[in-house]
Amino acid sequence: MKKHLLAAVGLCCITLLAACNDNEAADDQTAVAVVNGTEITESEFVNTLKQRYGEATLEEMIRRDILLKAGENIELTDEEIQAELDKFRTNLGVQDDEELLNVLRSQFNIEADSLDTFTEEYIIPPLILQQLASADVEVTEEAKQAYYEENSEQFSEQVEASHILVEDEATAQEVLDKLEAGEDFAALAEEYSIDGSAANGGELGYFGKGRMVAPFEEAAFSLEVGEISEPVESDYGFHIIKVTGQKASYEDFAADIEQILIQEQSKSTEEVMNELLEQSDIDIRDQQFSDLFTSDASESAAE
Description:
alpha+beta, Chitinase A, domain 3, 2 domains, four-stranded antiparallel β-sheet, two-stranded antiparallel ribbon, 6 strands, about 15% strand, disordered N terminus, disordered C terminus
C-alpha cells in the first residue's frame, strides 16, 4: 500500500502540467500571486512545478494510461475492489468512507473528491497489474494437493476469531449482556475494545496454535463457529471471543494454497510494467522529458 500512496506525490499538479505545453508556459504572464509588489506569473509557477514534479508526474500518467489500456478486458469484481479498500481502512485506522477520504487528503495530499475517484486512481490500476502478472498462471488440483502434503506443518488447525478486550470483568459482563440481548459484536468491539482491533470490529483473522496467549488460545480453539465465549482473563485484560471460522483439512486450505502457488508462479509487477512500456509507442514531445524512459531516468524516477 505504501507504494500506491507514494506514487501520488506530485499528482496534485497533474491538471496544471497536463494542461500546458512549453509555449503556453512561456507566454502566460497572468499573475497567480503578488508578493510585496512582485508578481509570480502563471508561466513561472507552471515551470517550477514541471521542474520539481514534472518527470515523476508525467511518468506516472504514462504508466497509468498504458496499464488501463492493457487491462481493458480485465473484469474486477466488487469483492476484489472492496477488499483493497478495506486494507486501506485497516492500515490507516479508519472506519467509514468519509474518514478515509479525509485522511488521504490531509496526510497524503490525495485530492480525491469521492471514493469512486480514489478507487479509479489508486485501487483499480494496481489490481489490473496484479491480474496481468498472473494471467498465464495455471494451478492444477494435483499441484495444490502436492503442496499441501509437502508443507503440512503450515496447515495445522486454525481458527478465525474476533474479540472485545476490556480492562475489568464488570465491563466484560456488561458487554456480554448486550451481546446476549442481540447487539452487534463488531459495533460493541468498536465501542468498548481497548486494543487496535477495535477499528476493525475486533477482527483478528486466522491464527494457529502458539500465536496467542494461553487462556485466549484455549478458549478460542474450544469454541464452535459462531459461538461467543464467557469473559476470558489474560495479562491484557478480559476478552470476549467470537469464533467466525475454522480450518483443519485440505479442503479448508485449498483456496489459500492456490493463491500461494499463483504468487510463486506470477511475474513480478515490475516485470509486467516494463514489458508494457517496451510494447508501447511513447512519443515524448517536451524536450525537458525526452530521456524519461531511458534506463537512468526511469531508475531515478522510480526511486
